[in-house]
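Figure 2 data, in text form.
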Amino acid sequence: MGEGRMRKVLVVGATGLLGGAIVRALAGRAEVILAARTGVPQTVDITDRASLESLFARVGAVDDIVCTAGMVRFVPWANVTDEDWTQGLAHKLMGQVNLVRVGAPFVRDGGSITLTSGVLAQRPMPGSSIVSTVNAAVEGFVRAAAIEIGRGVRVNAVSPGWVAETMQRMGMDPSPGIPAAEVAERFVRLIESEINGCVIIAAKGV
């Protein structure tokens, strides 16, 4: 990641499938700080602003933030409840939005923030009304935040398709999916590049 000081990268959602793959991809290339709801020293709940503020008070300045955290439900249209919508908006959308709002002042000039959306924003399927809406909103937020934060801080997103390991765990044929390690490389590319305000799709054949 260039000459001199190693970059300090905060990975939020580090215990998940994609988060773990990103941590492995950054090994030896950056000083990585692992954050998640449980299972790591730096615990955080992205739906709780006070928890986010506490995280950055502990961690301090970073060069880059990566977020793969945020839950949202697949629910058939006829069964979707107000609570389902509230959960998805609070977690994957506002959780990531508030991570940027709280975390941006701690990102060093010229650093980066990379969020996670998903290809269902462009390619919806039955049951994905909440997921598709939230992912599209995350992408709109990224494009706007990228031109507002300033100080050379870049804001981007990776939009994964089906991840092969997830498909395998669900008893599906993983061949149409993309391995988590390949998705992780898209995140690393955004950290190391000068790209700003972009959404990079990580899906088979893309």
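Caption note: The chain is about 40% helix and 20% strand.
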